[in-house]
């Protein structure tokens, strides 16, 4: 189990496709506070892409059928991505948005108080499901239940939450596979037995830039991600999305894994 803090950089989708030629840093060696959330959001989420739409739709349907109510929910490594937290809103007593980067924590706190209009199309996808359509004011709801916490994925308390999401975190917080595997284990360990979860990763990622700054990634393969998750979960379902055109150079696909945590 890694002991160093992790940055939930939110996604492994960069702001430029400049090739990365750098050492293979561990998570604790990265200057996560230099992460630029505004640049990241502009590049990745200003327009709702078909691949994000499909992952959002599938996550919505999964939680919509999970028989959740008044749940303690968590989004781990929220970074500068709000849509995983939105998928938890109708079922949440609280939603803890856990993030390590100070710049991302500041961004999240502003968004929780009243998120930007660019997230409205993401909610509209959610609202195609009756459980979400029944929620009349998602902005107000997030302000009521959302709680931004500066927390490392590696330091999460065990068996604490009833449902959770972790999008584009394990693949994009370190250049070492062992830390990616630790991140998955820590996330699943933070959920109570039987809790539904959704995990998304970039497969085959070579690293990414946010503005001029490079950040590390691990070139994960489908089989190893599924094996790491299945070790602590059941009712596992996998969907792989190959975007056309890709968001950037240097990755193969996006993968969503849903399931429930083993007891």
UniProtKB/TrEMBL annotation:
A molecular-function term among this protein's GO annotations: methyltransferase activity
Keyword Transferase annotated: yes
Tree of life domain: Bacteria
Record keywords: Methyltransferase, S-adenosyl-L-methionine, Transferase
InterPro entries referenced in this protein's UniProt entry, alphabetically: NNMT_TEMT_trans, SAM-dependent_MTases_sf
Residue intervals passing through the bilayer: none
Signal peptide (residue range): none
Gene3D superfamilies for this protein: Vaccinia Virus protein VP39
UniProt keyword Methyltransferase, yes or no: yes
GO biological process entries: methylation
PANTHER family in the cross-refs: NICOTINAMIDE N-METHYLTRANSFERASE, NNMT/PNMT/TEMT FAMILY MEMBER
NCBIfam families in the cross-refs: SCO2525_fam
Protein's name according to its UniProt entry: SCO2525 family SAM-dependent methyltransferase
